[in-house]
Specification:
The protein has about 350 residues and is of the alpha+beta class. Among the domains are: about 100 residues, no CATH class; about 110 residues, Band 7 domain (Tetrahydropterin Synthase, Chain A, 2-Layer Sandwich), CATH 3.30.479.30. The protein has 13 helices and four strands. Strands 1, 2, 3 and 4 form a four-stranded antiparallel sheet that branches.
Length: about 350
């Protein structure tokens, strides 16, 4: 074999060995770390993780923590959760930490449940911490843009309340359970209902813990991922007298309605008066027409012989006498009597 070919073969082998050594050096630190921590992970497993696009460092660290905590979690289980289907990758290290915390707190939590909670998008480690150390939720929430829950008692006075709800995570209901927003909404509804059913706002101010007891007894944590431990009324203030304001608005509305009805009746009276005046003018015109017919009737009576001259003079005398009596009884007669006195 020619020397040149031997040198070429030697160079290729040397390059391949160098690449393999560099590749192995990439995982040798993790392999030694796992062996020294009594949580062995095979070199072939580390290489296979690299080809499967799994983060070997996260798997090794999770494996070490699980082994040190005496948790029976294998490398295959860690890889399976890391390679969760879809865009949601499993947070292996956080799941292992949550299992360690639950085990130390004597909380029942297994690997499958923890993985399911993590893949559901919930923070399993925070849930375990909340289960051990209950947290306080402000009602209403600071993100809602409101500082108080407003309600009106039966006497019409508005009360503004703020509550603090102490909750503990319920790991069994964490999958599919409602979140903090549901707790806040239910507590707010309970506060409004309790204040609204109170006969007087003074009773609520005298005994604000009645709100807490009433709301707490309604079982507001049903179907949620939390267990309500207590509901405390942090503050309660007196707002506006809504009842008096509504009564004033109603009185003003009634006044405008009555004014409109009175104006309607006045307009109808004015229209009726104009109709009566028109009727009077009509009747007066008919009287004038009737009076115009009298001379014609008299002339016809003369021509037909039904009316004589003496009858005519007698009628004129009666008319004159009537006119005289009217003048005596009228305003002129009264004025003469006053002047005589």
């Amino acid at each position: 074999m020619p020397p040149q070919l031997l040198w070429i073969i030697f160079a290729v082998v040397a390059v391949v060995v160098l690449i393999v050594c560099m590749f192995l050096l990439k995982f040798i630190g993790l392999w030694v770390q796992a062996m020294m921590s009594k949580a062995p992970v095979g070199m072939t497993d580390l290489v296979g993780m690299w080809f499967r696009k799994v983060d070997p460092r996260e798997i090794v660290e999770s494996r070490i923590q699980a082994a040190r905590a005496d948790l029976q979690i294998t490398t295959a289980m860690l890889e399976t959760h890391f390679l969760a289907v879809g865009k949601q990758r499993g947070r292996v290290l956080r799941v292992v930490n949550s299992l360690i915390a639950a085990d130390r707190a004597k909380i029942e939590l297994n690997w499958d449940t923890a993985c399911a909670i993590d893949l559901a998008g919930r923070d399993i480690f925070d849930a375990v911490q909340t289960s051990v150390n209950p947290k306080v939720i402000d009602c209403p929430s600071a993100n809602s843009g409101r500082s108080t829950i407003d309600a009106v008692a039966q006497d019409g006075v508005q009360l503004k309340a703020r509550a603090r709800v102490t909750v503990r995570a319920n790991l069994k209901r964490l999958i599919g359970g409602a979140t903090e927003e549901t707790i806040i909404a239910r507590v707010g509804e309970g506060i409004v209902t309790t204040i609204g059913s109170s006969a007087s706002h003074k009773k609520v101010l005298e005994n604000p813990d009645s709100i807490s007891k009433t709301v707490l007894n309604k079982g507001l944590d049903a179907g949620t991922a939390f267990e309500i431990l207590s509901i405390d009324i942090a503050d309660i203030d007196v707002g506006e007298n809504i009842g008096a304001k509504l009564q004033a608005d109603q009185a003003e509305s009634d006044k405008r309605r009555f004014q409109a009805e009175a104006e309607k009746r006045r307009a109808m009276a004015v229209a009726q008066e104009q109709e009566f005046k028109a009727e009077i003018q009509k009747n007066q015109a008919q009287v004038v027409l009737a009076q115009a017919e009298v001379p014609k009737a008299m002339a016809e009576a003369f021509r037909s012989g039904n009316l004589g001259v003496m009858d005519y003079y007698r009628m004129k005398n009666i008319q004159s006498d009537t006119a005289m009596r009217d003048s005596i009884a009228g305003p002129e007669g009264d004025s003469r009597a006053d002047s005589t006195e």
